[in-house]
């Protein structure tokens, strides 16, 4: 547990629907979030809009998982740091939203990583600004009670094992990871998120 109080600009947070609307607008404008506005990142934003649209429709939460989420008695805010071009975010964020929608005690909000560097720097993954990063804040105390991300535990193991064996992630591996997400259908992320509650 991190168990410290963090400062973040609540006025800058946006809802999931606002985030989805913004990504759709970025696609129309041929743009992207973040400090860099490269053609590649614009392409990733377009691809991620399609991915999120698909996951919004197809992610299934089992009755057992729904029951566990409904039994959560906390009052928390889940602040997710992200950017529109992030491939992991496109697969994970719709799942986070599905879980948050199942309990009124979970207030889901989004912030952009590059606009919130001081906050991001408090939640690095192996020294890097990996996203998406979910920060679970107790609304009564303001304490950070848990974090999650940037990807499901099973996907993290795949990434770490590949890096250990090959030194870095290749384009071929990244395609394999996308196939893993498609086959998994959000279920690993759901399992991980239930551990937060």
UniProtKB/TrEMBL annotation:
Record InterPro entries: Thioredoxin-like_sf (IPR036249)
Protein's name according to its UniProt entry: Thioredoxin-like protein
Lineage of origin: Bacteria, Pseudomonadati, Bacteroidota, Flavobacteriia, Flavobacteriales
């Amino acid at each position: 547990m991190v168990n410290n109080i963090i400062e973040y600009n609540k006025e800058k947070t946006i809802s999931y629907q606002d985030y989805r609307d913004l990504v759709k607008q970025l696609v129309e404008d041929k743009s992207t979030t973040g400090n860099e506005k490269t053609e590649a990142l614009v392409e990733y934003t377009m691809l991620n809009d399609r991915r999120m649209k698909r996951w919004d429709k197809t992610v299934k939460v089992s009755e057992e998982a729904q029951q566990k989420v409904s039994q959560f008695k906390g009052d928390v805010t889940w602040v997710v740091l992200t950017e529109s071009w992030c491939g992991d975010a496109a697969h994970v964020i719709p799942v986070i939203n599905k879980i948050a929608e199942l309990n009124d005690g979970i207030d889901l909000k989004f912030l952009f990583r590059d606009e919130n560097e001081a906050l991001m720097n408090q939640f690095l993954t192996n020294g890097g600004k990996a996203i998406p990063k979910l920060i679970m804040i107790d609304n009564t105390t303001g304490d950070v009670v848990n974090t999650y991300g940037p990807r499901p535990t099973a996907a993290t193991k795949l990434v770490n094992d590949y890096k250990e064996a090959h030194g870095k992630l290749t384009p071929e591996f990244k395609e394999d990871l996308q196939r893993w997400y498609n086959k998994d259908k959000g279920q690993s992320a759901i399992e991980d998120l239930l551990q937060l509650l």
